[in-house]
Fold:
Amino acid sequence: MKQDDPLASVGAYGARIDTLADTFLARNEYALYGMMRYFMGYADERFNSTAHPVGKRIRPGLLLLIADSYGLLEEAIPVALSIELFHNFTLIHDDIVDHDELRRGRSTVWKLWGVDHAINTGDAQLILTLRALEEPMQASPKSVAILRARLLDRYLEVIEGQYLDFTLAATELNDPSVTEETYLTMTNKKTARLVRAATEASPILAKKGEIEIAALGDFGENLGMAYQLYDDWQGIWGVSEKTGKQRSGDIYERKKTLPVIYAREHLAPTDRQRLEVLYDKGTPDKGEVEEILGLLAKTDAQKVLESYAMRYKEAAIRALTRTELTGSTKILLEQVTRALVPDVVIASR
Structure:
């Protein structure tokens, strides 16, 4: 396995689900299933098969990499399939909520077929997510039962995170409930718990002890938090040529990410009121976005966000040292962590 491209290595593991997933989603002649295959990249807009699935497959890749280190690669594939189907179900619905017309460079489901079909397609994919867990697994019945119950808990936590996200988005910035703690709790549930589900699944399937399960779960959860915070950094200060997104897009969309909340809590009263007015009045224009960026700079919000991301990243790497994984697997997982949340964030300002 090539160690110089860790994300490609994990992606290769994740790609092992694609043939199974394509077959699993091809239920019958209803276009409903074609929409699922389209979103996953297995079909085009006319539901003709394509050879280039979309998405990084990081979560199933992490799961299968760890499973392979335990000698359980094939046994874990149905679990990896379930997690990837669940992740994509949430994205189908996210695109509706966010009014996003593009996902991975392609038109979104709701944009092509309407909101009603997109909601129904996401709902059906959630059912298939659970059906995937009913696929035969060559592991002890007790381990499989424990794993299925754990995954259902994690899936529900993600839905709870979605609820918290909707609530935060609908709340004005000046509301006292909008705090760093609120944001971090939402991010933990919405994003980090699904990564935790991926990294703790294989040790559960392998009948490892609670210490191993907890260590790998902590690795995944901290990695998920670090990656989301890095994504938040890109959403404000990232360069469009690298991110493929509008510069400061999160400001234009008035997303209440950590740096905005931190600035609100640490600005002088007059500046705080100005930030609240700009954020709560509607979509800002270019000049107002630049003004908001200036207000964030007054509190060093960018540096604070970078510090949070690095803290979670290092916590993920420390968790790896507590595991029973082989040295080469630990090295690869550390490389993946550093690739997903690069150290150059701070240097790139």
Remarks:
- The longest helix spans residues 141-170.
- The radius of gyration is 21 Å.
- The longest strand covers residues 102-103.
- Residues 1-136 form a domain with the Farnesyl Diphosphate Synthase fold (CATH 1.10.600.10).
